[in-house]
Amino acid sequence: TRQNLDFDGQFFFSYDHTTSNGEQSDEFSLKRGYITFRRAITDRFSIRFTQDISIDEEGDGAGDIELRLKYALLKMSLEDLGPLKNPSLDIGVVHRPWIDFEQDINDYRAQKPMFLDQNDILSSADYGFSFSALLGEPLDATARRGMRTPPGTYGSIDIGLYNGGGYSALEANRNKLIEARIALRPLPRRLPGFQVSGFTAIGDGNNEFNSDFHLFGGGLSFESEPWRFLAQTIQSEGDGSGSYINARRQAYSLTGWGLFTELRPFSVPLSLTGRFEYLRNEDLEHTVNRQTILGVAYIFPNRSKFMLDVASVDADPLYGQNDFTRVQFVTEIRF
Q1: Are 99 and 118 in contact (CB under 8 A)?
Q2: Environment class of residue 154 by beta-carbon count within 10 Å: exposed (0-12), middle (13-18) or buried (19+)?
């Protein structure tokens, strides 16, 4: 029946003024769009189907509006497993552990993809399966005010097995990637918004050479209504896309860090945001990407937004990226 069919959508429309290598450009653009259908099959089984709308930037179809799949999965809700509460198993085209968690804190995907996704190190979704659960019972409604991450009293876990290249890439080898995340609340009663996280991805890059990909990272985060914060750091041999390799097809050693913060200091629903990221190739001893984004956003009750931001990027053309400064106005519409 239609009664248990849920439908929602989201799209980002922007105006960008960009200066790069002394040249300027101005452009209206549909940055991204998502349409999601959810339906319960039984009390324990449900489906999610999310279409991803974007602009083709390559090949003969450059400029065309493309429609791809972002998620197409069967979710199985499982019985509690001791301290693991509300466990579930997703099978199909599913979320990946770390970026899914990061986007629960950084609700500004309309500005840019998340740090590791933007630099092709991890993807936000992939073909495979994932298991997730809360550590302890869910926090009560008062403690959860201002939170969007999984609400386990002591944290949450997420682990999965994936192709590795991401939902928009063909599988280039037989390797499968294991990715996992754990988030812990050290002070669930006094400071429930504070979490300490660790995450890892182990496998090969998505290329025919099976270049190494071993990533380890950590994060500190805080969520509340007036303030949100996330700091992360990573060390990696190679990347999920298999792009960071040398002429001998060996993976480069990468290090990096990222900071995100959102402040709501006013009585009106205005947010001030800051995002700072740095990625370094240790083998070549130079910067791959250094990025700063500062913005202000008006937030509607359903999390739709009007945003104005300024971004400065210092990037290495070796990886197909160039320096630029951008002023951007974005409307993010949710329905």
Answers
A1: no
A2: middle
Note the pLDDT tens digit of each residue in 82-94.
999 999 999 999 9
Of 21, 18, 126, nearest to 72 by C-alpha is 126
Look up tokens 């991803």; give the residue.
52
Could you tell me the sign of the dihedral formed by the alpha carbons of 166, 43, 156, 229, in that order? Answer: positive
Number of neighbours of residue 245 by Cβ within 10 angstroms: 17
Instruction: Write the DSSP assignment of 259-300 as a string of letters.
Output: EEEEE--SSSSEEEEEEEEEEEETTTTEEEEEEEEEEEEEE-
The answer to whether the beta carbons of residues 199 and 103 sit under 8 Å apart is no
Looking at 136-269, which runs of residues are DSSP E strands?
A: 155-162, 177-184, 194-204, 212-223, 227-237, 253-263
110 in Cβ contact with 305 (< 8 Å):
yes
Q: Write the DSSP string, 170-198.
A: ---SS--EEEEEEEE-S-TTT-TTEEEEE
CA nearest neighbour of 241 among 164, 153, 129, 334:
164
Question: Measured between alpha carbons, how far is 44 from 224 in angstroms, rounded to an integer?
Answer: 31
- pLDDT at position 168 is 87
pLDDT 10s digits, 297-335: 999 999 999 999 999 999 887 777 778 899 999 999 999
Contact present, 138 and 152 (Cβ < 8 Å): yes
Integer-rounded Cα Rg, in Å, for the chain is: 20
The values of phi and psi at residue 115, to 5°, are: -50, -55
Q: Longest C-alpha distance within the chain, in Å?
A: 60
